[in-house]
Design goal:
alpha/beta, 434 Repressor (Amino-terminal Domain), Rossmann fold, 3 domains, 6-stranded parallel β-sheet, 6-stranded mixed β-sheet, 12 strands, about 15% strand
């Protein structure tokens, strides 16, 4: 049935039926007639039709770097919960670490007339170089978690990753650690902010930072490779800071394999305070970037943008160091 069929049988107008389907108040006797027709024909309103009337599909698109990674999964999960509380449906898209895969997803989400898009990860900064993408996105509310898209309708929530690396160096220095190495696995904006914070803190304490930054492959194997590279050259090291917890797991594994007591002989600090931090033996000291809080704040921000609220600003969150056994 169409709303015209319902209107004819309920002896009212199609616009009145549309108002009823979108929960807008109408006369009680008219409401009763419409409901009798709906019940008679077991009518279920089409979401697309409702959206065309209300100009809202009540749907949010989420595009994330890699849903397998715990901090991205935590953020996406919290988004899904928060937006559902606000009455939105969610479409989650996973680009597997390739920012340009998001172009197809963006086109698809726009064809679905989503109300807004959330990008999770600083990798999406690369989209600023693509005029076609910016042109597609310029009319839809956008929020970026830990990154920035240069459009007036796009807002950001940053984790201050430079500060996170600084507090890690500060903590290690206060423990007497001076030969500190940074292990990272990417060239994203987030990773480069960590490098900046590391260099700044090392310079503050007049510690050597040249050649103390190791760029390696992602994953446990990358952490193991970085650690093995240092140990095999008999380089003096008393602490590792890793840009991801999973890298730190690899470092811890390799240190234990070589007979070191992690947290005593050599300290290890991870980043993002994911489930890996609690699964590692010994448990991992990690910089907490607060992904759950990020998602809650971004959900609130995007909801305000969609509802045309004023005075919305991007947000920067300060990470905290969660001290466990490895440092």
């Amino acid at each position: 049935m169409t709303i015209y069929d319902i209107a004819k049988e309920a002896k009212t107008s199609p616009s009145t039926v549309s108002r009823y389907l979108n929960n807008i108040k109408i006369r009680e006797d008219t409401k009763t007639r419409i409901e009798e027709v709906l019940k008679k024909y077991n009518f279920k309103p089409n979401a697309m039709a409702r959206g065309l009337v209300s100009k809202s599909m009540k749907t949010i698109g989420i595009i994330t770097v890699d849903i397998r990674e715990p901090h991205y999964a935590t953020t996406a999960y919290t988004f899904e919960q928060e937006f559902r509380k606000r009455g939105y449906n969610i479409i989650i898209c996973n680009i597997s670490g390739n920012a340009y895969k998001s172009v197809d997803y963006i086109k698809r989400l726009l064809s679905y007339h989503v109300d807004g898009i959330v990008f999770i990860g600083s990798i999406f900064n690369e989209l600023n170089e693509n005029f076609e993408v910016l042109n597609m996105l310029k009319r839809i509310p956008i929020v970026v978690a830990n990154g920035k898209i240069s459009l007036p309708n796009a807002y950001s929530l940053f984790s201050d990753d430079a500060y996170g690396c600084e507090i890690a160096v500060n903590y290690l220095y206060e423990k007497g650690r001076k030969n500190i190495y940074l292990v990272r696995d990417a060239n994203t904006d987030s990773a480069l902010r960590k490098v900046s914070g590391f260099e700044l803190a090392m310079e503050r304490y007049h510690l050597e930072s040249d050649n103390h930054i190791l760029k390696i492959n992602h994953g446990i194997e990358g952490g193991e490779e970085a650690c093995e590279n240092i140990l095999s050259k008999n380089i003096k090291v008393d602490a590792f800071i890793c840009s991801e917890d999973i890298l730190a797991v690899g470092v811890v594994n390799k240190l234990k394999e070589h007979g070191y007591k992690v947290g005593k002989d050599i300290d290890v600090i991870g980043f993002n305070n994911t489930i890996y931090a609690k699964m590692t033996v010994p448990q991992l000291t990690s910089v907490d970037t607060k992904p759950t809080l990020q998602a809650e704040l971004i959900s609130e921000m995007l909801d305000k943008i969609i509802n045309n609220e004023k005075n919305i600003e991007s947000i920067s969150l300060k990470p905290e160091l969660v001290i466990r056994e490895t440092a």
